[in-house]
Request: fold
Amino acid sequence: MKEIALENLSFNPWTKIGKDWFLLTSGDENSFNTMTVGWANMGIMWNKNIITAMVRPNRYTYEFMEKNDLFTVSFFDDRYKKALGFCGSHSGRDCDKAKEAGITPEFIDGTTAFKEAKLVFVCRKIYAQDLDVSLITEDVRPANGSDPIHKQYMGEVIKVYEN
Reply:
C-alpha cells in the first residue's frame, strides 16, 4: 500500500458506501475485529475530514471501537464481495473472520487494515455518541425494538492508502 493525499481521491461515496460496502476495523496486531458496513457518512466537521460509522453495542467490533482511538475503513474491489458478506454475517467472537473470508490483516499506523483492500482510510476517533431513538423520524426508526440502537463514531481521516 502506498500513502496518497486525500485531496487526490475521486469517487462517489453513495456507491462506495451503500453499494460496494466497506470493512470497519479496530484493534491492533494483538487483537482486532472487523465488520461490514453498508451505511456511513463522509464529510467535513470542525474543519476536519471525517468518516462517521455506526455500530450497535451488541456487535463484537463495538468493544474494539470503544477501547481504541484508531479505526480503519477499507474498501475492496468486487472480487471481495463474498468476503465482505461473510464478515457482515459472522461474529469475530465465534471465528477468525479474516482467515475464513480469505483476507490478510495488515497492521499499519497502530491499527489494522487488510492487504487486499484497494483503498484504506486510517481514522482517529474524535467523537462518539449513542443515537437517541426519540430523535429518529418514524420512517427510519428501527422496527425491531429488541435490537440495540447504534452508537456513532466520528473519525478524523489521518491517512489514506491505496493499492
Remarks:
- The chain has a mean pLDDT of 94.
